[in-house]
């Protein structure tokens, strides 16, 4: 089973952009994710073609399973 943290931001141009991280630590809290996301925005860490990251939209952990057939 694989897990991925998907953090979605709204840019200063009003579009959405996401940042994904594989295998986030177990027990990750909303407060921890909010703190990191706000820090990414405040420090303007990433350049995107959709504009600067301006606000937090959402964050979710997606869990997937694989079923090997052959």
Order of secondary-structure elements? EEHE
Question: Structural class from helices and strands?
Answer: alpha+beta
Supply the number of helical segments. Answer: 1
What's the count of strands? 3
Chain-averaged pLDDT: 95
Shape: globular
Beta-strand residue fraction: 35-45%
Head-to-tail CA distance between termini: 18 Å
State the major sheet.
Answer: 3 strands, antiparallel
Helix content: 10-25%
* Order of adjacent strands in the largest pleated sheet: 2-1-3
The radius of gyration computed from the alpha-carbon positions, rounded to a whole number of angstroms, is: 14 Å
Low-pLDDT residue intervals, each spanning 5 or more residues: none
Which key features would you list for this structure?
single chain; 1 helix; 3-stranded antiparallel β-sheet; 70 residues; alpha+beta
Can you walk me through this structure?
The protein has 70 residues and is an alpha+beta fold. The protein is built from 1 helix and 3 strands. The longest helix is centred in the middle third of the chain and has 13 residues, at 30-42. The mean pLDDT is 95.
Quick gist of this model?
This protein is of the alpha+beta class. It has one helix at 30-42; strands at 2-11, 16-22, 53-64.
């Amino acid at each position: 089973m694989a897990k991925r943290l998907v953090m979605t931001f709204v840019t200063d141009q009003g579009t959405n952009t996401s940042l994904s991280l594989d295998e986030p630590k177990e027990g990750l809290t909303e407060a921890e994710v909010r703190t990191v996301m706000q820090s990414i925005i405040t420090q303007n860490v990433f350049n995107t073609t959709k504009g600067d990251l301006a606000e937090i939209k959402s964050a979710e952990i997606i869990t997937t399973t694989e079923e090997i057939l052959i």
